Amino acid sequence: MKIYSMTATFGKLERQTLTLTPGLNIIEAPNEWGKSTWCAFIVAMLYGIDTKARTTQTVLADKERYAPWSGAPMEGRMDICWKGRNITIERSTRGRVIFGEFRAYETESGLDVPELTAANCGMELLGVERSVFVRAGFLKLSDMPVTQDDALRRRLNNLVTTGDEDGAADKLAQSLKELKNKCRYNKSGLLPQAETERDKLEEQLRSLQELNVQAQRLRERQKELEIWTAKLENHKAALNYAQAQEDSRHILEAENARDAVQNQLSTLESECAVLPSAEEAERARTELQKLHNESMSLQMEQQMLPSAPIAPECQKCFEGMTGEQAVEQAKSDVEQVRLWIKKIKTLKIIVLITSVLAVAVALVGAFVFHEFYRGFYMAACGILYVPVLCLFKIKKLRLLCRNYAVKYGVEHFNTWIPMAEEFAGQRQAFEEENAQYQQMVSQLQQRREDLMSRLQALTGGEAIGSCLEKWEKVTQKWKALADLRRDLQRAQEQITALQAMAKDVPAPSAPDELTQTLSETDALLTSAAFELKQNQLRLGQFQGQAEALGQESALRATLKQVRSRIERLEETYSALEVAQKALSTATSELQRRFAPRIAKRAQELFGKLTDGRYEKVMLAEDLSIHVSAQQEATTRPSQWRSDGTVDQLYLALRLAVAEELTPDAPLVLDDAMVRFDDKRLATALNILSEMAEDKQVILFTCQSREKKLQGEM
């Protein structure tokens, strides 16, 4: 297949077109121009976009990595030549499905190419899977070493071991492996299944035997329970018979008690016929009891009546006076005493003045008019007569005041009026208390007279205790009569209930040897019935389980067949192991014969790239590369060589791989030779030019050396 042109809306590419030629195409462009994007576009157009891939922390999914920067839907077109036919492939986004729309048609006629679909386009055009094309048809500096890609390794292994890319040996080995796995793979396969079936049949046989043993035990237990139940039923019949006899005795006793009550009732009805009615007796007894209670209450009130108030102690000065009179008298006496005291004060002044005057007259006569001394003396004596009279008067007035103080018992007259007022208050309180007391006594007397009048009317003069006792006896007789009537009714109801409960129970059919009570017997019968039912259910379950397990003879026959099948499968498994070992031996032999195929071509290319310096290239079983230079006796791993030599070595190997694995696919190189010197680069370009005669080669580079060297070729 060869690519003529490509138009892409893909990543940073916005409707950009890249035109190619069938041979060697050298596309020079700077970094970030989109070389890697065109490489990814080629793969996406041929194999589609994996829309299920998810972005992780380390890897960005292609659907997000190459989403158009402009925000337009992802789409592309590729014009190719395949098997002599010019074909156009188109992919576009449908809804949310990236590259979900696919079409392949002939470029000139526009007729669809039905053999190409979105799923098989790359496989049909290139003849290899996506991973093989990516690893073998694309060469980048970072991807030049051969890695352990599963599809690529499978094709390399087929080439190395059988020399045939169709993988017939792998298919045979896989078939043998699948047959072995079909026979036995861990716990799956025919053998484990047959062994599981055998174990299951053996377990079924064991379970069936255990079920039969348990069922036999249950049947024996069932017989024991049936015998025990029969004994319990007979014992219950005996208890019921004894209970029936006891019920008959209770009915007879109840009838006798009813007859006794009937006789008492007849006697008491005769006695009550001549008595006052129950209502009259109850009414009289109630009224009499009420009056009796009132009498007792009245007596209690009389006993609790306080004593008569005592008149307050009266002072002699207030004897025979009322409170108001005492106050008026005290006020009058205080006024009189005050008047006397005022007079005494006046007389004292007169005494003082006259005494001073008499002394002055005597002194004047003695010292001034001494010749008239006698006259002045007589005058002074005459003046002294006045204070003497005043003193007698003062003494008399004081005696009168003292008499009043003796009368009141207090010398100071200021307390006489309060004493009188206190006496008046005490007298008034006594009179009020005495009036209340007399009123209470009068009321009690009036109530007593009224009570005695009502008692006289009710008892006719008879003692109240006797009347109460008489009416109490009448009331009790009527109550006794009512009680006997109720007792008679209850006795009749009891007889009716006992007769209703009484049953005609036959005697037990067999002797009774048990001693349990009726409740214990019922509990034992219930327990036995429950156990019988449970046993019956378990027997049914055992029978169902036994039926589910199958007949013992059929199980044994099936087990025999399974064991025979296991023997045959084990023989088959052993034969497959022998065949697998034989195929492995044959594969090893083929590998020794065809291993040099890829290594030989890689050695030729590596020799050209290094001007024949390295003579031998070997591809080990694990795809590691060993080389030897001139005059070296042994091969060494590639790690022993310089970086430039390693680049040339891996380029030679990858070119050899591309020739063998992807003969129909274009070879795309993305900056794969940036570390080559000019000489080695020129040699590599010569090799690519030779390869371009058979397959299209597309070389992306960020340097100008490739085109310059191409022009010089």
SSE string, helices as H and strands as E? EEEHHEEEHHEHHHHHHHHHHHEEEHEHEH
Q: Whole-Å distance between the termini? A: 26 Å
Number of strands: 12
Strand order of the largest sheet: 2-1-4-5-6
In brief, what are we looking at here?
α7 (190-273) crosses α12, α7 (190-273) runs antiparallel to α13 (518-549) and α15 packs across α16.
Task: Give a quick set of tags describing it.
713 residues, alpha/beta, 5-stranded antiparallel sheet, 4-stranded parallel sheet, 18 helices, 12 strands
Tell me about this structure:
- The protein has 713 residues and is an alpha/beta fold.
- The protein has a five-stranded antiparallel β-sheet, with helices on one face.
- A hairpin with a 5-residue loop joins strand 8 and strand 9.
- It starts with a strand and ends with a helix.
- The chain contains 18 helices and twelve strands.
Task: Describe the protein's topology.
Layout: E1 2-10, E2 13-19, E3 24-28, H1 35-47, H2 62-65, E4 75-82, E5 85-94, E6 97-106, H3 121-126, H4 130-136, E7 138-140, H5 150-162, H6 168-183, H7 190-273, H8 278-303, H9 323-367, H10 373-408, H11 416-459, H12 464-501, H13 518-549, H14 552-594, H15 596-609, E8 614-619, E9 625-629, E10 636-637, H16 643-661, E11 667-670, H17 678-692, E12 697-701, H18 705-712
Parallel strand pairs: 3-12, 7-11, 11-12
Antiparallel strand pairs: 1-2, 1-4, 4-5, 5-6, 8-9, 9-10
Helix pairs in contact: 4-5, 5-14, 6-14, 7-12, 7-13, 7-14, 8-11, 8-12, 9-10, 9-11, 15-16, 17-18
